[in-house]
Amino acid sequence: MERYLSKQVNSDLARKMVFVTGPRQAGKTWLAREIARQYTDAAYLSFDDVEDATLIRKREWSPRAPLVIFDEIHKMADWKTFLKGTFDTRRDAHRFLITGSARLETFRQVGESLAGRYFHYRIYPLSVREAVDQLRMKPSEALDALNRLGGFPEPFLSGSAAVAGRWRKQYLTDLVREDVLEFSRVQEIRSMNTLVSLLRRRVGSPLSFASLGEDLQISPNTVKRYVEILESLYIVFLVRPFHRNIARSLVKEPKLYFFDSGAVDGDEGVRLENTVAVCLRKQAHWLQDLEGRDVDLYYGRTKEGREMDFIIAENGEVSECIEVKLSDDRLSPSVRHFQKMLPGARFVQIVHELPRERTRDGVEIRRAANYLAGCVV
User: Fold this and answer.
1) Best CA proximity match to 22, nearest among 10, 39, 5, 35
2) Which of 121, 192, 282, 300 maximizes the CB count within 10 A of its CB?
3) Residue 226 DSSP SS3
4) Is the CB of residue 272 less than 8 Å from the CB of residue 280?
5) pLDDT of 240-250, one tens digit each?
């Protein structure tokens, strides 16, 4: 199958280096090899391979390779200086694609500047739209599979809950062994594993670092640091409450979701909300990476405690509000309340089990699968 980034990444390679980051096993290597097949004699070099690492350090890959792919190159000392010099001196001979996960994303933002020399894309697990476009699935089938198996390609394509369960257990074990230790200390691993178990049961609820700290017998600041590590590793992501004052938004309690909906320990409604969050976040980051738009995903919460599941805002202005329901097609009181606060926004209540789509009092009541199939990616 062709991943949703393929055409745009290939196009941008003609102008600059392209960085692709994202969760482990989300499809970065598949994407790179898919693009490589479009070139004759492309060079795929992983810094995890001893022979490839030597070729990289000495710059001894084939001079005839039209495309050079560096995987995990951030593990090389002074890799930014290396890329800067390589691109500046060899850009006429080669195109350069750089792939990596957590550490590449972190290191990309600090140290030696590569400004003006690259485009950056974040690759996400499969969404309803991608499953419909690339796998020819019906929207409802795709959504059911995402809720049950998660969107990472291997468990999703297996179609088996047992295979997905085995994959997930190994996936988290590998992340702890290979990645978490780069951010943390050995003695903290047990606390982080316990934190992940707690977070799996708190998806979609405002996250209290103080409460989690009490459960783990550690300080709220330590919990916050652990969550930041899990974010950096693309295990979880935070959705913050919308506020035009960014500083105020940052101090409010965020909601947390997993990149892997299959990891959620909750009922069907919670898993559905997580899947919607992943799809909407994927869309927002695609618009950021491809078009440079200032669009992001939030949730809504008033002083009176009324909540809106998701808010899409662009340039600080709310463009769309989304409420998620499993089967209740009655118009949510929260939707009516936020309608009065945000009269210019589009309001959609998406329902997984909905007999008939309709519009009521200016609110679109849509089947969740159809709505997500209409996302950009």
Assistant:
1) 5
2) 282
3) helix
4) no
5) 999 875 545 44
